[in-house]
Amino acid sequence: MRVMASDYMYWAKTQVPVRYALGSSEVPPCHLDRFPLTIANLELDGASRYRYPPLREAIARHAGVTADRVVMADGTSMANMLALSALLSPGDEVVAEHPVYEPMVATAAHLGATIRSFERRAPDFAVDPAAVEQAVTDRTRVILITNLHNPTGNLADEATLRAIGDLAARVGAHVVVDEVYLDAAVPPQRTSALLGERFVVTSSLTKCYGLSGIRCGWILAEPALAERIWRLNELFGVAQSHAAERLALVAFEHLGEIAAANAALLQRNRALANAFVESRDDLDCVPMTGGITAFPRLLHGDVDALNRLLRERYDTSIVPGRFFGAADRFRMGVGGPTDIVEGGLERLGAALDTIK
């Protein structure tokens, strides 16, 4: 039966907000009104701007590619939908990582694809090209990964990605890489779109820049495929909101300033999370070295019960690992203000102590 919804996304959007949101997976919101900006900047004339060239070129500069490889989309989720829609037909196979970000495989299943999985094994959840090779068949049309890995934050290096690209080329497939967390990697990494025409990359200004409200997402693909995706997008949304495009262009003009404090914030918060996990005998998790999220294993008890306890008694949240295919784990985000992350960890510790 065709998948018609994302269980995780519905769950995430219908939860009551909490103060200590360890379930969040992005840096603090950026307020664009701190920059010189008036209504006139938004060109609210009712017109759209076809494939708005200034924004397309700004994304290209940010990624280090040519503008003919850029397709704009409403956030990374829509970018994933467009990329997969362009690459898949009913009955095709998708080889996806596990643990996996559920909306990505739900999208592939919605498009009629058959899902095969390869394991990213604990403790570090690295990608093993040999495991990918075992899952790939002649019917594989897409190999689907996140980098940094959602939910664990693991970084797949270029050698690993090249090996996966070689596997894809062997069977005529593409590698779709969701890179929405990549700009939180330590040290900084370049996009896998630069590794060859088999790579199709999606990303946005959401997770690493705190700009979820303007829905500035994109796809990077070789020019002929990018053109196919542009044409496909005309079936979905025709064009993006031009006011949002203008705001995104303002963001790119000030992106260095927007991101300036985030590296130090994440370094502090990762250190807090690492110290917290190290102090617990009821959690198992490799130390965070980059990224915004971690994926601890709860050694005793039920993760959903822990989440309910956190919400009801401690005004705190986590994301149960069942949404990623690992019910004994939970995703923990450390992108919030340091006082919120520190307070959330204290409350998580108190909740864990009550279920021992």
Judged by helices, strands and strand pairing, the structural class is alpha/beta
What series of H and E elements makes up the topology?
A: HEHEHEHEHEHEEEHHHHEEEHEEEH
User: Mean of residue pLDDT?
Assistant: 96
DSSP helical segment count: 12
Query: Using only CA atoms, what is the Rg?
Result: 20 Å
Q: What CATH architecture of the largest domain do you see? A: 3-Layer(aba) Sandwich
Principal-axes geometry comes out as: globular
- The share of residues in helices is 25-40%
Largest sheet: 7 strands, mixed
Count of β-strands:
14
Distance between the termini: 41 Å
Query: Strand portion, in percent?
Result: 15-25%
Low-confidence stretches: none
Domain tally: 2
CATH topology of the largest domain: Aspartate Aminotransferase, domain 2
Fourth CATH level, the homologous superfamily of the largest domain: Type I PLP-dependent aspartate aminotransferase-like (Major domain)
Largest sheet: spatial strand order: 2-8-7-6-5-3-4
Keywords: Aminotransferase, Transferase
Protein name: Aminotransferase class I/II-fold pyridoxal phosphate-dependent enzyme
GO molecular function, one term: transaminase activity
Domain Aminotransferase class I/classII large: 49-347
